[in-house]
Design a protein that fits this description.
The chain is 76% helix and 0% strand. By secondary structure, it is mainly α. It starts with 5 loop residues before the first helix and ends with a helix.
Length: 25
């Protein structure tokens, strides 16, 4: 895995939370 910039990391966390929310529903 390549390192992800801080900004991308921040966005990635939100995206994961959103994806988990959709999966949970």
């Amino acid at each position: 895995m390549h390192e992800i910039p801080i900004e991308n990391r921040k966005y990635n966390v939100i995206y994961k939370r959103h994806f988990m929310h959709l999966t949970f529903l």
